[in-house]
Amino acid sequence: MPTILRTFAAAALLPGLGGCVGTAGISTWDYRSGPGYETARSQESRIQVDSAQGLTHEACTRVSRRQVAASGAVGEAELDACRSH
Predict the structure, then answer these.
(1) Can you say how many angstroms the Cα of residue 5 is from the centroid of all Cα atoms in its chain?
(2) pLDDT at 60
(3) What digits encode the pLDDT tens for the residues 43-55?
(4) What's the number of domains the chain is made of?
(5) Strands 20-34 and 37-50
(6) Which among 25, 30, 24 has a CA at the least distance from the CA of 62?
(7) Are 51 and 21 in contact (CB under 8 A)?
(8) In terms of domain of life, where is this protein from (predicted)?
């Protein structure tokens, strides 16, 4: 049986067990750099099976940037964004 079908079949059979039943996720990461800059980006997506809420989905993205000016000054910024449904 394909993996996705097993996940949904398990989700349909497990609601009576109580509490958090399980989580599955995937993460990706990307790094880029050049003269005077570095950028790292990570993305994570997670599906959770919970007897109280059923199937839930959360997706998060984190972007970190670092720039070095000609004077040597370093500027850094980080952005986190998540959404759930």
Answers:
(1) 22
(2) 94
(3) 999 888 877 778 8
(4) 1
(5) antiparallel
(6) 30
(7) yes
(8) Bacteria
